[in-house]
């Protein structure tokens, strides 16, 4: 299944409390449950003003639908071409 990186512009994202992050995560998981197993949230990285999310999904449209239903921004959606890591250098 294709992998996507979603950039969500959220001012002061890095200042969100544990409880706020939990609420956002619960909202996301609730939408995913309704959408079915075709779309999966892998993990996210929280920075000062953005959250970068990694998802598996059949297409970009499904990512956009998740964002719409959850009320989350999806400012940029990029399909991952290949994943590299230190083993790639060997």
Question: How would you characterize this protein structure?
Answer:
The protein is of the alpha+beta class and 90 residues long. 32% of the residues lie in helices and 28% in strands. The chain is built from 2 helices and 4 strands. The chain has a 4-stranded antiparallel beta sheet, with no helix packed on it. β2 (40-46) and β3 form a beta hairpin. α1 (18-35) crosses α2. The radius of gyration is 14 Å and the shape is globular. It starts with a strand and ends in an 11-residue tail after the last strand.
The overall pLDDT average reads 97
Major sheet: size, sense and barrel closure? 4 strands, antiparallel
SSE run: EHEEHE
Helix count, DSSP H or I runs of 4 or more residues: 2
Shape: globular
Radius of gyration, in Å, reads 14 Å
Pfam families: SCO4226-like (PF14026)
Protein name: DUF4242 domain-containing protein
Organism: Flavobacterium flavipallidum
InterPro entries: SCO4226, SCO4226-like
Summary of the model, kept short:
The chain has about 90 residues and is α+β, with helices and mostly antiparallel strands. About 30% of the residues lie in helices and about 30% in strands.
Keywords, please?
2 helices, four-stranded antiparallel sheet, alpha+beta, 90 residues, SCO4226, SCO4226-like, DUF4242 domain-containing protein
